[in-house]
């Protein structure tokens, strides 16, 4: 992966929001929480992820740079909520009622499961496969699994195996 350097003022804005949300959660839940490690190594179209056991938040540097304030306002509380839920309740559904509670009641942020950022700049090559009823786009990762014989994909509508049509994108 090509390394993308997040400008220092943007990193500082991320940490400022993260610390504000931790204080908010600590006050509301009447306990202190450690500050998670933040890295800028998330790849692909995913904006961020929470590594529960490592107490780490991974952020997509490209989507952060492209969407700055809306990214910070949405993704930071989203991923921090995953860590707090794990801390408070253990292993539960990723976007279940506990997570929604932290998002809506503690952080006062809409509990959106996915972001709506444009992913044009982070999309990888796709491959067109077909079945009997339609065409399907598979990612390069899925395509490589098919080529190596590690996976085969089946259409959910007609139940037929997908076959490569042509390269796309």
Automatic annotation (TrEMBL):
One cellular-component annotation, GO: cytoplasm
Active site: 79
Domain SprT-like: 16-165
Domain of life where this protein originates: Bacteria
Subcellular location(s) per record: Cytoplasm
Free-text cofactor note: Binds 1 zinc ion.
Entry's Gene Ontology molecular function annotations: zinc ion binding
Keywords recorded for this protein, A-Z: Cytoplasm, Metal-binding, Zinc
Matching InterPro entries: SprT-like_domain (IPR006640), SprT_Zn_ribbon (IPR035240), Uncharacterised_SprT (IPR023483)
Annotated Zn(2+) binding sites: 78, 82
Cofactor or coenzyme needed: Zn(2+)
Family per similarity comment: Belongs to the SprT family.
Record-linked PANTHER family: PROTEIN SPRT
Protein name: Protein SprT
Species per Swiss-Prot/TrEMBL record: Xenorhabdus cabanillasii
């Amino acid at each position: 992966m090509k390394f993308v350097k997040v400008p220092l003022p943007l990193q500082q804005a991320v940490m400022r929001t993260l610390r504000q949300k931790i204080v908010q959660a600590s006050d509301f839940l009447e306990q202190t929480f450690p500050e998670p490690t933040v890295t800028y190594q998330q790849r692909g179209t995913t904006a961020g992820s929470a590594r529960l056991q490592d107490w780490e938040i991974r952020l997509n540097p490209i989507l952060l740079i492209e969407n700055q304030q809306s990214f910070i306002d949405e993704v930071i509380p989203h991923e921090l909520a995953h860590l707090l839920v794990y801390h408070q309740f253990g292993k539960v559904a990723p976007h279940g009622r506990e997570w929604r509670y932290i998002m809506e009641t503690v952080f006062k942020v809409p509990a959106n499961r996915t972001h709506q950022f444009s992913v044009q700049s982070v999309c990888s090559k796709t491959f067109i496969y077909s079945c009997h009823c339609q065409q399907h786009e598979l990612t390069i990762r899925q395509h490589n699994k098919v080529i190596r014989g590690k996976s085969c994909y089946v259409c959910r509508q007609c139940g037929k195996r997908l076959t490569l049509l042509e390269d796309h994108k």
